[in-house]
Amino acid sequence: MTAYAAPLRDITFVLDNVAGLAKVTALPAFAEATPDLVSSILEEAAKIAADTLAPLNQVGDSQGARLENGVVRVADGWTEAWNVLVEGGWNGLPFSPDHGGMGLPNVLNTAVHEMWQAANMAFTLCPMLTQGAVNAVESYGTEGQKALYLPKMVTGEWTGTMNLTEPGAGSDLAAIRTKAVPEGDHYRISGSKIFITYGDHEMVENIIHLVLARLPDAPAGVKGISLFIVPKFLVNEDGSLGARNDAVCASLEHKLGIHGSPTAVMAFGEGEGAIGSLVGEANRGLEYMFTMMNHARQAVGLQGLAIAERAYQQALNYARERVQGKPTGWTGAGATGIINHPDVRRMLMTMKCQIEAMRGLIYSAAAHVDVAHNHPDAAERGRAQMMADLYTPLVKGWSTEVGNVIASLGVQVHGGMGYVEETGAAQHFRDARITTIYEGTTAIQANDLVLRKTLRDGGQGLRGLLQDVATTAGAAESAGLAIGAKLNAATATATACVEWLVGAGKEDPRLPAGAAVPFLELMGILVGAQMMAKGALAAKGGGDAFLAAKLVTADFYADHVLSRVDGLGQTILAGSAAIMALDESQL
Amino acid sequence: MTAYAAPLRDITFVLDNVAGLAKVTALPAFAEATPDLVSSILEEAAKIAADTLAPLNQVGDSQGARLENGVVRVADGWTEAWNVLVEGGWNGLPFSPDHGGMGLPNVLNTAVHEMWQAANMAFTLCPMLTQGAVNAVESYGTEGQKALYLPKMVTGEWTGTMNLTEPGAGSDLAAIRTKAVPEGDHYRISGSKIFITYGDHEMVENIIHLVLARLPDAPAGVKGISLFIVPKFLVNEDGSLGARNDAVCASLEHKLGIHGSPTAVMAFGEGEGAIGSLVGEANRGLEYMFTMMNHARQAVGLQGLAIAERAYQQALNYARERVQGKPTGWTGAGATGIINHPDVRRMLMTMKCQIEAMRGLIYSAAAHVDVAHNHPDAAERGRAQMMADLYTPLVKGWSTEVGNVIASLGVQVHGGMGYVEETGAAQHFRDARITTIYEGTTAIQANDLVLRKTLRDGGQGLRGLLQDVATTAGAAESAGLAIGAKLNAATATATACVEWLVGAGKEDPRLPAGAAVPFLELMGILVGAQMMAKGALAAKGGGDAFLAAKLVTADFYADHVLSRVDGLGQTILAGSAAIMALDESQL
After folding, report:
1. For residue A157, with 0-12 CB atoms within 10 Å meaning exposed, 13-18 middle and 19 or more buried, which class applies?
2. Phi, psi for A13 (deg, rounded to 5)
3. Member of which family (chains A, B) (predicted)?
4. Partners of B253 in the beta sheet?
């Protein structure tokens, strides 16, 4: 079992100096989010992470979730841990007090969830998805649905799920076949859903499924999908539980990682049909689901950061303790840990600097969401929404790819011990691997960034974002930070790529689509560098070792990560012709 | 269960056009290696890979090796598969007919092992290590040892192991503590060894352990290590088996992957001490072990290629069959597999082109070994040995890192199905992860390349290698291949890095050591590009679709892989100061 200690000073540093927490808490909606309250929330969440969730991480991995006689059992201690969250009201942190929530900023919820995802990713999928389901009901449900379901979902007494994927409909939601047939004041839902995270489990008395399905007269494709609430147990008007609904877990997947999280095949309507109620208007389900998905995508990007932080802590501890040979150039007295071997240090720095960059990006995206939803001024809301929209594919696409690389470096730092399961490094590596896949693969994020968010407006939005990067780069350069000039040069490369994408898109859409993932990586690295520059600007002249380190990690990031932008630019600007040049049979 | 079909035309193309098989078979030592014999060996080996080994790959993963009442059980069918290799005499392919071998080239053995490693990596570790043990006994054993052990090791009736690692001595062999005390005509060995691949198993009647240990009067450090033969069962002079030796498997590791391969903790001398005999001279064990390790390092690099090929085949099949949405820009009639989604195609091309580059590099290294060991002319032997020495860290360090990336892309192509263990893609991902660790981590390969093989001769050898790359680049440029000019530019970057490394090494050895892994990656990419250019030069003007594809993969490699050289050059030339700039406490 490995420990986790929340990096509270790093988290606070990014909240205050990179993401702009003060701008968020200055919004009228968040008048209660005083600095004292923020601190105590972070400290309490850190304790839960370290004391309650982290010790259960390896337990969940080794025991896994099991389907036994129709009941989905979770690992030892997990139900008790869930009850800790329920009792603290933690699930309601970002929700309106109207439904029992705390009414605190999304960016604060993000910081709390970073700690929990790092402590126990398989567990924290449950609050993550429950919050997504609350969002959907809060945003699109009728008053009756809100009254019936939200109070217990906000407390976490009931959990929520998202039921999108079907065997023939993964990335392509147009292919959804689950049916919803009207019957009186409700609908009968029938169909099969796969990959349903926490689709069933024993931790709570009821589970509220949000299910995409088609009405009998629905148009084909994505414009014929509607969203339904399908509870595991029907809920009476007084809030008490009624009959068991026809929505059951048919089996659980045997997965590479996140063993503690039950991934269910859900059968709706094996009998007379599951009873559900329509959310919002018919045939607008995909649009509603996208709102949730944007939340979920930022949350999965956060998992990339979190698993990276966990892997880093474990590797750092091992590197301090493990003695193995005399490091090259070592002049210190006596034995030293492998932390002083230059390449081990290079790996640790590669992990550390990208963790800082990801945290900056993800918290900034979360703060933009707060502003977009709560600023009194519509123009400010619009600007923040545009930034959130552009950041979301970077948060999801880039942070999860980087999270995988960092989890792999965590194994590498351990050498042979990293390959032995008992050590724990391998679990992070296995757990991390899902993050580039679920809630839309990296390619889907990249297509979102390029095809939707760059080509549709002719590159307008991205040029604005690049201007914002250039402003930071200029400030860094003026302040004499080495990253400044490098960030400026990289921004010019990115700008050239945007122009190429826009032009190529007019020629053949396969060209920008083929360049989309390299472009996503380029933009992730670039905006990550902007975050490092912001941090370095804030830390400059500060007196202590923590602040001084921020200048070094920014330098390291510039030399070891930002340096990749040129090559990515070459790849993109070379055109994508070679990608599709072979006939299928030649592969 | 997933199938594997050996890519015989690709293998033959690289043997003939990139690695220069003809130059090897022209050596007097290999007079019997006629084209017909080579073909039939490759075809037979391909059948064994497809029919015997590949079907057991998932069986081995799910059953694993188990220690039951002191016996190490292997998975169902594995003993029968081993007997297929024994009956065919396959283990003796590269060994002298004097000891029952076939006397065929190392490069041919490499091609055969590529197929078997791809078919079943956990299984093929056993012949791989047995061949390494034969090499050691053949090279350094007494005539008596050779007569006693080699016949049955060459047939594979007995298997071999390498016992280096101890709990406190992984990468640092100077810390080895296992003792060898002289007693009459033999030695008593006592100590604990860990991570011993196929340290014990039930497939054969005897196992010959090669064990590093210290004599009582040995100097400290690596100059006091000797090599011993310690058989599981003592062998009588007539070759029959005697008493059980005091060398037992204490436990097996629970690993991330290669479950079918037993990784043993070996206890030597828990009782009266294991009986062993000294190989070669006392205190020269490390030197002998290094000869074996060079073989083993090339063999592990080959695993990187092999697992990549296996992952590619599986991803390609899935991408052909899986239908999901209409690909961007798709104008074909009807439904098509995801193979026509631009980013899926980009991933497949990224896999394919690097597999071709690795195969060229690895087979070339193997051919250099053949020339170095068998050429009648000493100067030719010397030149080939120098190339083999420089290639070995690239083969091991670069191919295993690339193998991991490709196995991960294999998961990604499968989307959610890639995360489900039954699919098989995840097994390749788990299996691949050990390859950058055992037989020396990537950092150790990089230090070998930079500190030993570049700084010691002031960059002389590497300049020669870069000149060789430049020659290919020039030829490619003259032939009008796009990769030519790009390879030339990248060679200039590499040259600048060599000069920087040599200079920085004089200043502070930590500087080149910190840049070593980026430099290894740069050199791997570069020599890989040289191999692609050689292939394209050979394919140019050829009439069929297979040869035409070589030109496209070379173009793709240039745009998507070789393009990384600039960034790696920036990283190296920026200096390594930021790597060690933080105090330990600031990490």
Report:
1. middle
2. -60, -45
3. Belongs to the acyl-CoA dehydrogenase family.
4. none
Contact B587 A255 (CB under 8 A): no
- How confident is the model at residue A172, as a pLDDT? 87
User: Smallest Cα–Cα separation from B470: which of B407, B530, B550?
Assistant: B530
Would B228 be classed as within a structural domain? no
* B-chain residue closest to A509, CA distance: B329
Let me know if residue B391 belongs to a domain. no
**pLDDT < 70 positions in chain B:** 1
Query: Which residue range forms the structural domain that includes residue B512?
Result: 442-587
CA distance B384 to B66: 43
Residues 6+ apart with CB under 8 A from A400: A300, A301, A303, A304, A432, A435, A436, A442
Q: What ipTM describes this predicted complex?
A: 0.97
- Looking at the structure of chain B, the number of domains it has is 1
CA A430 – CA A442 distance, rounded (Å): 17
pLDDT score at B190: 97
Q: What does the pLDDT look like over B493-513, one tens digit per residue?
A: 999 999 999 999 999 999 999
Which run of H or E residues covers position B61? helix B57-63
What is the overall mean pLDDT for chain A? 96
Q: What is the mean pLDDT of residues A223-247?
A: 97
Report which of B307, B260, B352 is spatially closest to residue B116, judged by C-alpha positions.
B307
Q: Best mutation site among B452, B552, B553, B585 for testing chain A: the one with the most A CBs within 10 Å?
A: B552
Q: From CA B408, how far away is CA A256, in angstroms rounded? A: 12
Q: Are strands A241-244 and A233-235 parallel, antiparallel or unpaired?
A: antiparallel
Say yes or no to pLDDT of A470 above 90: yes
Contacts of A543 (CB under 8 A, 6+ apart): none
Residue B340 lies in a domain: no
Map tokens 């009207």 to a residue.
Answer: A182
Q: Kindly state whether residue A382 falls inside one of the protein's structural domains.
A: no
Please state, as a whole number, how many other Cβ atoms lie within 10 Å of the Cβ of residue A62.
Answer: 14
Q: In chain B, which residue's Cα lies nearest the Cα of A346?
A: B579
pLDDT at B331: 87
Can you read off the two tokens belonging to residue A26? Answer: 């200055």
**Residues 227..256 of B with a Cβ closer than 8 Å to A: which?**
253-256
